[in-house]
Design goal:
The chain is mostly helical. It has nine helices and two strands; from the N terminus they run ααααααββααα. Strands 1-2 form a two-stranded antiparallel sheet.
């Protein structure tokens, strides 16, 4: 098993599986974030955030999610460096762009590092404050969940205050576009890495991947932008 995971095929398999896992997470995360746009003073978003923070299944998934990110990042860097080393000095020697190779596929490492930098910022803005240091903005409020008054952290106030800063919103917009470009290649590439690809499915996965990538990337960007434009007190 260890020899398989250390092989090129094994590394690509782990990259593909971790990529698919993270893409499912992104859809869930986007769905929760979309509640920020419900004009109810943040009650529905706070209910969603409370569910995500207290649900036992979600708590179990958190370390798995962290491991998924770590595996994807480490193997992404390793495979990129191995591919560059294999090409050696012959890389782009002709000076011509390789036919059928997109800009995204040639710059996945740069895009990945950019997204990682944004992820660190995102964790500092929200996860650290919600899980470690706390914040005055997280003062408990009472909301109605299924007809039952429930005391929860005011996660909406923290997010809303964060998105009141224009520079932060612009970072999120740029990061959303970068994520979309990264996913536009990563979607079909993940399926190819696990062996689910051929000439017919490559076209279908490429098209589906473009739709998914821009839906997710622009979704995150628009949520931050709309919060700044229309949801500030």
């Amino acid at each position: 098993m260890s020899s398989l995971l250390c092989s090129s095929i094994g590394k690509k398999l782990l990259m593909g599986l971790s990529g698919l896992f993270l893409m499912i997470f992104l859809l869930v995360h986007l769905g929760v974030n979309a509640l920020l746009l419900v004009p109810d003073g943040g009650e529905l978003f706070n209910a969603g955030a409370h569910f995500m923070a207290t649900n036992p299944a979600v708590k179990i998934m958190e370390p798995i999610l962290g491991l998924g990110f770590l595996v994807h990042i480490v193997y992404g860097v390793v495979l990129t460096l191995q591919n560059r080393k294999a090409r050696g000095s012959a890389q782009y020697a002709s000076g011509k762009k390789t036919k059928g190779v997109t800009w995204a596929s040639q710059n996945m490492l740069v895009l990945g590092i950019t997204i990682l930098a944004f992820l660190v910022l995102h964790i500092a803005h929200f996860w650290v404050k919600m899980k470690v240091t706390g914040s005055d903005l997280l003062e408990h409020v009472t909301i109605n969940i299924g007809g039952v008054p429930t005391e929860v952290e005011n996660a909406y106030a923290l997010v809303n205050a964060t998105f009141s800063e224009l520079w932060i919103v612009l970072v999120y917009v740029v990061a959303g576009i970068g994520l979309a470009i990264h996913l536009s290649h990563g979607f079909w590439s993940s399926f190819q890495s696990i062996g689910f690809s051929n000439n017919l499915w490559r076209k279908r996965l490429t098209t589906t991947g473009q739709v998914y990538a821009w839906f997710v990337g622009l979704g995150f960007a628009l949520i931050a932008l709309l919060q700044y434009l229309f949801f500030q007190a």
